[in-house]
């Protein structure tokens, strides 16, 4: 871990711990999150952990820029990694099908796999939740197997259905709401991520882990899933 503090706004600092994404980072990011929350107390407005950084928004009426930086240095000196086993483990059922996962054939071909093998690879690993963002309940997860890692679409879709499961480079995620998006879509889940977030109880939190499970269309429908096909580049 190499601590750097960068100015991110009038009342915000970017706390950079690493330069590259790695699963091992999460234990340090979670430890830093807890230490900073304790160090800033009621002077903390918001703290957003991510793959390699934490964005810290503090109350400038209570702390100067210099004082905020000093608190960060003090809080993170002699930091020890957190126990990532404390995070919740989630199993997310996914209906993998070309009608709702239109990028399945292209991603499989790029990886030199059959569609069935691609689905197996995506379901095989357990993914850590590194950060929340983009939309309420949207968890950035990783790291996807190098063999199936696929760059984002050159031209994003104007509309991606809620529950869509996709990958971008070595990340995977679930769209909680209908929205534009440039991730490669593989399938869809009926798990209502946005409803959890709306109640202030996001299902996925940094430090949690997720494993995807392939289910049939019948099971997906029984869970209340929307089978409306995705229109290519809609």
Automatic annotation (TrEMBL):
InterPro entries: CT_C_D, Cyclophilin-like_dom_sf, PxpB. Keywords: ATP-binding, Hydrolase, Nucleotide-binding. GO terms for molecular function: 5-oxoprolinase (ATP-hydrolyzing) activity. It is an enzyme of class 3 (hydrolase). Signal peptide: none annotated. Residues 215-234 are annotated as: Disordered. This is 5-oxoprolinase subunit PxpB. The lineage of its organism: Bacteria, Pseudomonadati, Pseudomonadota, Gammaproteobacteria, Oceanospirillales.
